[in-house]
Amino acid sequence: MSLADVGPLLLVGAGRMGSAMLEGWIARGLDPDLTFVIEPQPSDRLRELAETRGIHLNPDPAEGPAPDKMVLAVKPQVMDDVLARIAPFASPSTLVISIAAGRTLEGIARHFPTGTPIVRSIPNTPAAIGKGVTVAHANQAVDEDGRRVCTRLLESLGVVEWVDEEQLIDAATAVSGSGPAYAFYLAECLAEAGHAEGLPQDLAARLAAVTVAGAGALMLESGLPASKLRENVTSPNGTTAAALAVLMREEHGLGALMREAVAAAAARSRQLAT
Ligand SMILES: NC(=O)C1=CN([C@@H]2O[C@H](COP(=O)(O)OP(=O)(O)OC[C@H]3O[C@@H](n4cnc5c(N)ncnc54)[C@H](OP(=O)(O)O)[C@@H]3O)[C@@H](O)[C@H]2O)C=CC1
Ligand SMILES: O=C(O)[C@@H]1CCC=N1
């Protein structure tokens, strides 16, 4: 699906997540000449996109018309300061899309004129290769057209899930927003454990990475539930069963740890609201 006709977009903050999204959008045809990026410390890649593709880097927001769409990708902690400076250049019809963890619609809306359409969303870094998932919640001012444009932008980065209740975004942040880090840490731990069993370090790292990636791809492509795929690996009284007996321990197993980790992330998301 091409984004060629999506129209002007201002991205505020092109750090790790903002630039991952920008890469996805440019790759899917977002018009570079209608793409404006505000980023105090542009990466080499961002400068290259400005020089070779013609995206507008650090334009003066006071010049030109109000942005049609504004994507907020700065850290939650600086959002209020940034909005105090940027929001006055928006118009009441500017579609605002925030990807900041924790920042509520209410907290964002107070910087904009009443009735501004705002979407609070949480993407994840696999968006850079079109394999992300974004969970989004819109305020009442977002009409069908705004939701369609937003869906197109976010779908170009992977799967989009709209939710009707804003507080679900905190839980989604803990599962899919932060989730890639858990998968990468699983690969790190698996590699270290393999090394401890005698595998050379680089071979252990390769085995762990390809195994985690392959398991993820199989889960998506087969459409089977994770539990069924796990059972398919587990021969009766075999090696997997021996490992799972450890991982599935009631009190100190991975399930209990994951519940604690996800609860900590969701609590931190709620805390970042203020
Ligand atoms: N990383 C992830 O996996 C995910 C992140 N998010 C959310 O995305 C947002 C960005 O996170 P992430 O990309 O990791 O963080 P980064 O710190 O990598 O990116 C934020 C960027 O915003 C820049 N910035 C700071 N002040 C301004 C300003 N006044 N105007 C424009 N840009 C500014 C920062 O520059 P400088 O470094 O100079 O301060 C930085 O490059 C956060 O709100 C986070 O919650 C959401 C989902 C996933
Ligand atoms: O760690 C964070 O706060 C951000 C939000 C989700 C992923 N990274």
UniProtKB/TrEMBL annotation:
Q: Which keywords fit this entry according to its UniProt record?
A: Amino-acid biosynthesis, Cytoplasm, NADP, Oxidoreductase, Proline biosynthesis
Classification via Pfam families: F420_oxidored (PF03807), P5CR_dimer (PF14748)
Q: Name one GO biological process term.
A: L-proline biosynthetic process
Q: Which GO terms describe its cellular component?
A: cytoplasm
Q: In which pathway does it act?
A: Amino-acid biosynthesis; L-proline biosynthesis; L-proline from L-glutamate 5-semialdehyde: step 1/1
Which of this chain's residues are annotated to bind NADP(+)? Answer: A73, V74, K75, P76
Q: Which reaction does it catalyse?
A: L-proline + NADP(+) = (S)-1-pyrroline-5-carboxylate + NADPH + 2 H(+); L-proline + NAD(+) = (S)-1-pyrroline-5-carboxylate + NADH + 2 H(+)
A GO molecular function held by the record:
pyrroline-5-carboxylate reductase activity
Q: Does the keyword Manganese apply?
A: no
Provide the Pyrroline-5-carboxylate reductase dimerisation domain boundaries: 166-272
Looking at the record, the residues that make up the Pyrroline-5-carboxylate reductase catalytic N-terminal domain are 11-102
Listed EC numbers:
1.5.1.2
Q: Which domain of life is it from?
A: Bacteria
Q: What does this protein do?
A: Catalyzes the reduction of 1-pyrroline-5-carboxylate (PCA) to L-proline.
Matching entries from PANTHER family are given as: PYRROLINE-5-CARBOXYLATE REDUCTASE, PYRROLINE-5-CARBOXYLATE REDUCTASE 3
Protein known as: Pyrroline-5-carboxylate reductase
Q: Which gene encodes it?
A: proC
